[in-house]
Amino acid sequence: MNDLNEAVCTKCKAEFESITGNACLYCGALEDGVCRDCLYWEQTEYAGLITKGQCLYRYNAAMQTYFHQYKFLQDVILSEVFAKEVQHALAKVEAVIVPIPMNPKKLKERTFAQVDAMLESARLPYKHLLTKNEDVQGKKTKTERMASAPLFQWNGEAVPKKVILVDDLYTTGTTMRHAAKVLKSAGAEEIELFCLIRG
């Protein structure tokens, strides 16, 4: 991979809070071992689906501003801000990168798929294996999210044995668990998670 140029100044970059130290095995929450949400998932039908996971940044004020500008104001050039960090985290993984897809209505509204754009800016190959239904998670409470009906369907393409699911923001883990369950049923044997931000 060629080196990527910085898309944001050092001062602005310093306002983002990296996740360091003890973090949840699955989601990057600041916990020793496994966080409360992930312990919940490991007691449900979604237990054992995820091998491990990583999130790079906390959802602090600077990240909220960035995320709103990128995702909701359609500022696609901001996909380049974390390109070097995403590339560094994923370039050497021995798994096929599978982005979480958007539902068709949201994709039409926002004009681009933010996870795909993030991976493309990082010059990383990926493969779509899922389609998303019309259910919108963003307006739901935490309890409603965690009790959601299945969010994804397999698109019928061959599923590799090792997969790393990639999304921009991790909140309750519902999206990732639902996606992982579909891929596991379709043939994946080892599934990891990666998100830019831990909410």
In short:
The chain has 199 residues and is of the alpha/beta class.
Provide keyphrases for this structure.
two-stranded antiparallel ribbon; 31% helix; four-stranded parallel sheet
Architecture overview:
- The structure is a single chain.
- This protein has 8 helices and 6 strands.
- The strands form 2 sheets. It has a 4-stranded parallel sheet, sandwiched between helices. A two-stranded antiparallel ribbon has the order 3-4.
- α8 links the parallel β5 and β6.
- It is globular.
- It starts with 9 loop residues before the first helix and ends with a strand.
- The mean pLDDT is 90.
Task: Give the topology, please.
Layout: H1 10-13, H2 36-41, E1 52-58, H3 61-72, H4 83-90, E2 96-99, H5 104-110, H6 114-121, E3 130-132, H7 142-146, E4 152-154, E5 162-170, H8 174-185, E6 190-198
Parallel strand pairs: 1-6, 2-5, 5-6
Antiparallel strand pairs: 3-4
